[in-house]
Amino acid sequence: MSDRPAVLIVQPHLGPIAPFMESAYDVHRLWEGPPVEAEALIEAVVVAGEFPLDAALIERLPKLRHVACFTAGYDGIDPAWCRARGLEVTHAPGVNHEDVADHAIGLILAAHRRIASGDADVRAGRWTPQSKTITRSLGGLKLGVVGLGAIGEAVARRAEAMRMSPAWWGPRPKDAAWPRAESLMELARRSDVLVVACRADDASRGLISGDVLQALGPDGLLVNVSRGQVVDEDALIAALKSGRLGGAALDVFETEPTDAARWADVPNTVLTPHTGGATTQAVQAMLGLLLQNLDAVLNGRPAVTPAP
After folding, report:
1. Which residue among 22, 136, 163, 256 is the active-site one?
2. Pairing status of strand 6-9 against strand 42-47
3. How do the domains of the chain map onto residue ranges?
4. Average pLDDT, integer, range 160-188
5. Exposed/middle/buried for 27, CB within 10 Å: 0-12, 13-18, 19+?
6. 115: phi > 0 → left, psi -120 to 50 → alpha, else beta; which?
7. 274 a catalytic residue
8. CB-count burial class (<10 Å; 0-12, 13-18, 19+) for 124
9. Ramachandran area for residue 159 (φ above 0: left; ψ -120 to 50: alpha; else beta)
10. How many Å apart are CA 213 and CA 194, to the nearest integer?
11. Could you tell me the sign of the dihedral formed by the alpha carbons of 147, 153, 154, 159, in that order?
């Protein structure tokens, strides 16, 4: 029997990080069906925070003491539930918010300036001298940011540099360089573009409702770089099909991967596969924090970046 700590990677897409852990840990992969006896040895699970933590799995691991979230967001994990069971929860904050903000601006450009549809027109042979698309300048657009955390602030800074006029709303006031709307509805009504960058939790589920989309209106653009469950996706699709909302640019979805057929006949959309924070630098930084947290917790030291 090995004297190294045993670690279980839960989601298959995290498989590529296994080689970076195998010099210090006995690494098991849940999708490969670890032997039953491994359950008695697992001391840490490595998870992606957007997926619900499997409580039944956790309860089967008697030596477990660390839930190591590879990502910054940990909305699929209930830290209080874990702490009640003696489990330390860690995550990777502050490493990809600038990249997510870059992606949000890219989505605004792609949707508002019709970059994605223009590319499709050129490739399909629909470009004629008479078909030139005229779009509104970014300058002077009113940008609303839902949630002025690290991502939201980074989006607002970029938008201001691009001559947009930012405002924001969040449930708690804070000192900021931009005005805070009195309500989410007020922010939606005054915005040409509404960027969802808030933290995903029970309170924010379905926050962007049909009424909010109605307030944003037939010329408005919704951009979501938070989590899919923050937006009422059925209401969003209905608003786009009816023309009650001008457009949507989404990096996150209610169910991931999203079903392509769900979006096949939905107009005025730009869709990316949850890649807002997926840069080489950010992934390396997340891996670094994961390894530091595993080393600390499994060797009896305080976690480097514990979840609040």
Report:
1. 256
2. parallel
3. 6-95+280-298, 97-271
4. 97
5. buried
6. alpha
7. yes
8. exposed
9. alpha
10. 9
11. positive
Whole-model pTM? Answer: 0.93
Q: What's the pLDDT score for residue 1?
A: 58
Catalytic residue among 66, 91, 158, 274: 274
Choose, from 28, 50, 227, 233, the residue flagged as catalytic.
Answer: 227
Token pair 């995903």: residue? 200
State how far the Cα of 235 lies from the Cα of 135, in Å rounded to an integer.
26
CA distances 169 to 85, 89, 113, 158, 183, Å, are 36, 29, 25, 17, 7
Mapped onto helix, strand or coil, the DSSP state of residue 27 is strand
Burial class (CB in 10 A: 0-12, 13-18, 19+), 204: buried
With a pLDDT cut of 90, the percent of the chain lying above it is 95
pLDDT of residue 50: 92
Query: Would you state the pLDDT for residue 64?
Result: 98
**Position of tokens 């998870």?**
47
Residue 63 has pLDDT above 80, yes or no: yes
CATH: 3.60.15.10, 3.20.20.300, 3.40.50.300, 3.40.50.720. Which one for 97-271? 3.40.50.720
- In this structure, are residues 82 and 59 in contact, taking their beta carbons and an 8 Å threshold? no
Query: Which residue type occupies 210?
Result: G
Active site residue 256: yes
CATH topology for 6-95+280-298 is Rossmann fold (3.40.50)
In order of 5, 159, 224, the CA distances from 163 in angstroms are: 53, 6, 21
The Cα–Cα gap between 30 and 253 comes to: 24
